[in-house]
Specification:
There is one protein chain. By secondary structure, the chain is α/β, with parallel strands linked by helices. The protein contains 14 helices and seven strands. The protein folds into three domains: about 1-40; about 40-250, P-loop containing nucleotide triphosphate hydrolases (Rossmann fold); about 265-315, no CATH class. Helix content is about 50%, strand content about 15%. Strands 3-2-4-1-5-6-7 form a seven-stranded parallel β-sheet, sandwiched between helices.
Length: about 325
Amino acid sequence: MDDLYSRLLNGDRRAVARLITLVENGDPAARDPISHLHEHTGHAHIVGITGAPGAGKSTLVSALAKVLRARGLTIGIIAVDPTSPFTGGAILGDRIRMQDLATDPEVFIRSMGTRGSLGGISVATNDAVNILDAFGKDVVIVETVGAGQVEVDIVKLAHTSVVVAMPGAGDEIQAIKAGIMEIGDVFVVNKADRAEAGRTYTEILMMLEMSERSDGRMPALIRTVATTGEGVEELAQAIMDHHAYLEEEGLLEKKTKERIVSELLEIINRQVGRTVMRALQEDPEMIELMGKLMETREIDPHTGAAMVIRHLMKKGEG
């Protein structure tokens, strides 16, 4: 593991891939290198790309990465794909759609499965972002799975959140339901060459003008055609402008602190959950008893959960 850590800091791409695999699999061996890498993080601009399925996020990320590379920036891309609840597998198609970036040594692309996470991003995404940050990438782009109303989780991770809508697909209504209008820093109407694009642009603009945002800032709204590159330069500039705004207003440090706290709480939640499940596996009679009591309607699931927690706490104290 020490060798993996050293190789990563020395620019070894295979070490990066190996460490991301370890954290994605929840391997305890990854803890030490991740811990050591923490002091080398905090430099990358984290950009979240979210929106409904079919909006063209992957094509847009690919086009955006090319524009940012032309500006001399190094890029890390984490593309989160949905994991099957039945087989546990993921198609990981985003990396296939970004093959034209694969030959650039300054671009690192990694696909990750959600593995049961409902927030549009994988539970290991935070660690993967930190790895690419420590690896020296200037910009780390996280493309979410496009799951709909749970996509707001990206705001906990990204400095700049980009919401991608598609003409005529009802994204504007979905955005209202999801609360995405409040979390987006840049909005994009992709596939803007379609007939309905003008109407979609106007409707999103009206909603942005009516929405009450805590920062009081009007987000940029950009038209793009990712397949041709139209509008992608403007999108890149809007993302850079937002980063500059965060720095000028002293908000970048605040966002970074919020992300770290969110990451801490997520890790605590995962570790507590694993500890509880291990304890219950050692005490199967407890779950069987709760199941019988709930089946006979003597207790409800909430009461049962509280009883199990109290039992485990007393057992731990003993």
